[in-house]
Amino acid sequence: MAAPARPYWKGYLQLSLVSCPISLYTAASSSERVGFRQINKQTGNRLRQQLIDEVTQKPVGAEDKGRGYEYAKGVYLQVEDEELDAIAIESSHMIGVDRFVPRSQIDERYLESPYYIVPNDKVGQEAFAVIREAMRVKDMVALGRVVLAKRERVIMLQPWGKGILGETLRYDYEIRNADEYFDDISDIKIKKEMLDLAQHIVASKTGDFNPKEFRDEYEEAVVEMLKKKQAGAPVPKDRPAAAPSNVVDLMQALRRSIGQSAPAAKVEAAKPAKTETKKAGKRSKAIPGQRELLLPITGSGKGKVAAESVAEPKKASGKPAATRRKAS
Description:
The chain starts with 8 loop residues before the first strand and ends in a 68-residue tail after the last helix. The chain is α+β, with helices and mostly antiparallel strands. It is extended, with a radius of gyration of 27 Å. The chain has a seven-stranded mixed β-barrel. Helix 4 (192-204) packs parallel to helix 6 (250-260). The chain is built from six helices and nine strands. It has a domain at 9-32 and 86-174: Ku70, Chain: A, Domain 2, CATH 2.40.290.
């Protein structure tokens, strides 16, 4: 099966003198989330943002838009795209493996964005497989460098089925010190009975990780609200969320929780509701990358705000993400 969409990056994967042409594809996407446009509430027309020169207050066209580095207050050094593209370092077109480390040594806080890595052609598949299987046999992940979006990033590589999963890593200076947040937490001596009760609750809710069981209930509620709004039904007013009860006796709360807790039931994926198909005018064209409402949008005119088209949730495709091990 051909890889979907265009590759995010193309180059070479190199281990010592072994190399092969590869492509990186983004492994996650937020394009199916419900999105909104900014509109004029009076006319229902979409709003467009305009670039304004900070000093002259005149609009600037796309052809005059550039980038600058502020080296003094209000003073910019103009930098052209060609100048950035001319900075040729090895990682601009190659992921060279620097070292191999146990996966458990990678602190979860450093993980950033996942990518699927595949060989570009059949000629390079053998070298690709050799690098992949060497990591699998040794139970190691590889660390290398790659330039993405005009920034050099550290990338972790690990076997993933027949391919390789790459994950960009944050730099050390980007990670905030946890002690700054946790130092004020008191050292509390926990009673054994309390800990036993809490462990019982944990055991009763223990199960396997299945990402398909988790649903974005807020987004589902937004879609439902949009359906009602399209159909002309009254939209329910905001209801205050129920506040959790103030825990006075922790031991009593734990004991009561045991009575309420039960083995975690499997959450079935929401089935799309059956809808009647009625000819109520032309169905509006769906906005690419958004969820489409089941109800058609009919009519238009000044003063009427047409709702955005949104699609029903799609089932996630591909292999479920593996549970990450805790860093040692």
